[in-house]
Every structure is written in structure tokens, then in C-alpha cells.
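Pipeline run #58 for the internal structure catalog. This entry was flagged by the ingest filter as a single-chain record with no existing model, so it goes straight to prediction. Upstream metadata was stripped on purpose; only the residue string is passed forward. Reviewer on rotation: M.T. Logging verbosity set to normal.
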Amino acid sequence: MNNDRAKENTDVIKLGEFTLNMRRHTLQKSGRDIELTQVEFQIIEYFFLNPDTALDRTDILSKVWGSNYFGEEKIVDVNIRRLRMKIEDEPSSPKHLVTVWGMGYKWNSGN
């Protein structure tokens, strides 16, 4: 039982008011579940594994959609916008999932 408990703890990342459970594929904000699609979850997981690190669209695209994806890079922007609607208090003025101009996006864990 202790071994299972230790394993579960490594599958949980807490950043501020957010808790990501990678085993259960859940995201909570202040204890409330946020419903995510599989793609949204993969994007959030990538950010949570790289907090405060600017990730460019190409990196996000490769990580989530795979290196063989040949569609529009703008699919990343569309999903970031959807995520902001779900996680930010004011999606038009994001504090967590912020734009890094000329680069891409980063998860700001300082707020």
C-alpha cells in the first residue's frame, strides 16, 4: 500500500491553486474539477512538467499532436484559447497560461 501511495504522489503536480493528476487525467482548480479534452489535458501536462518555461508552438505541436502532424500550427492557439476559457478567472487577461511574444506560451506558476 505504501508503494502505491508513493507512486500516486509522483503522478500529482501542484502549481498554486491547480492540481494535475496524471494518472487520473484530471485537473482541479481550488479543489474543483475542470473538464478537459484529451488534447487539452496533454497540453496542460506539458506545461506542468515545464513550469515557467517558454514553449514554442512547434514544441507543443510535436509533443501533443506528434511529429507527423502536418496541419496548421494555429491549432495550438485555438486550444490555448479554449484552455484559458476553462482555467483563467479573466481569459482575456491570463495570469497562468501566458503568451510569450515571438515565442509561444508558458505556464506562469508565480501567480
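catalog note: Residues 1-8 have pLDDT under 50 and may be disordered.
catalog note: Residues 2-107 form a domain with the Arc Repressor Mutant, subunit A fold (CATH 1.10.10.10).
status: ready for reviewer M.T.
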